[in-house]
Amino acid sequence: MKTYYSPTKPQTRIYHPHLFFKVAFFAGRLVKRPKVLIESPLPAEPVLFMANHANDYGPTAVMLALKKRKFRSWSSANMLSLKTAPDQIMKTIFPNARGVLKPVCRVMSYLMAPVMASMFKAAGVVPVYRDIRIKTTYTKTIETLKEGLDVVIFPESIVPNPENPYLDTLQKGAFKTLGFCKKYLGSVPKIYPVYCCRSLDTVVIGAPVIFDESLPVADAEEKATDEINAAVKRLGESLPPHKVTHYAVLPKNIDNIRKYMTYNEEKIYEQLREYYIEHNAEN
């Protein structure tokens, strides 16, 4: 019996997305696309796109910008489970809920969880894990590329990057995907940097970064990280002056930062604490 891709299982016999959720998820493709600027023609073969998150704008904008291509996006695995979806919804959709609104938003998160989890499963996302299960993320990425589909990755953490106002600090784990591609595909697809600008409603897709296979894998991954960081900065600078939308809207007080911790809590917290100390010292 024929099997299909599943974000939560090795394979499934049930074709996803189901009609209702397929219509719901892709309804956004019918609306007006953001302005799309492409520096270099996109090839027919599958590629990797690495984009800034721009809060909730990035994933939707990239989906609309790439609507003529077949792809799967990396997305938090927490949104695929009824057990973890409510907390993820609180942290991503209702992060600033306070006072009497907080319990109301909590109830809403439980009501939204079944629909959101079903839609994310129906969309066939690549589940992103922040623990030992990250290997599943890499495996699903390789599976997607073998099917001939692009993969969209949002590699930012919530830690600001003082040297790049257009892109928050990049996570090394996202770039380890490149090593897996080299190992299991024999080569690494072209990597296209993407800058999503909410204030100008524009998506800029830059010229591809080429994985340097002459280097040891770890060094090549680090080089690609630096090149993506520089490329997105250049794309941001190429646009008219605009307001930059970061991955997360961080509170002014470090004591309120814990609510943003969704993975690698202590490591991310320490990075943010160092940023707050340095930033406050400069001001």
Explain this structure.
With 283 residues, this protein is an alpha/beta fold. It is 40% helix and 11% strand. It has two domains: 19-25 and 47-249, no CATH class; 250-283, no CATH class. The protein has a seven-stranded mixed β-sheet with strand order 1-7-6-2-5-3-4, sandwiched between helices. A hairpin with a 4-residue loop joins strand 6 (191-197) and strand 7 (202-205). Helix 1 (19-26) packs across helix 4 (101-122), helix 3 packs across helix 4 (101-122) and helix 6 crosses helix 7.
The gross shape turns out to be globular
Helical fraction: 40-55%
Strand order of the largest sheet: 1-7-6-2-5-3-4
H/E topology pattern: HEEHEHHEHEHEEHH
Total strands: the figure is: 7
Beta strand %: 5-15%
Radius of gyration: 19 Å
- The average pLDDT is 84
**What is the total domain count?**
2
The unreliable regions are: none
Largest sheet: 7 strands, mixed
Count of alpha/pi helices: 8
Q: How far is it from the N-terminal to the C-terminal residue, by CA? A: 64 Å
Q: Pairing-aware structural class of the strands and helices?
A: alpha/beta
List the helices and strands and how they pair.
Elements lengths: L18 H8 L8 E4 L9 E4 L5 H9 L5 E6 L8 H8 L8 H22 L3 E3 L5 H13 L3 E4 L18 H14 L5 E7 L4 E4 L11 H22 L26 H18 L1
Parallel strand pairs: 1-7, 2-5, 2-6, 3-4, 3-5
Antiparallel strand pairs: 6-7
Helix pairs in contact: 1-4, 3-4, 5-6, 6-7
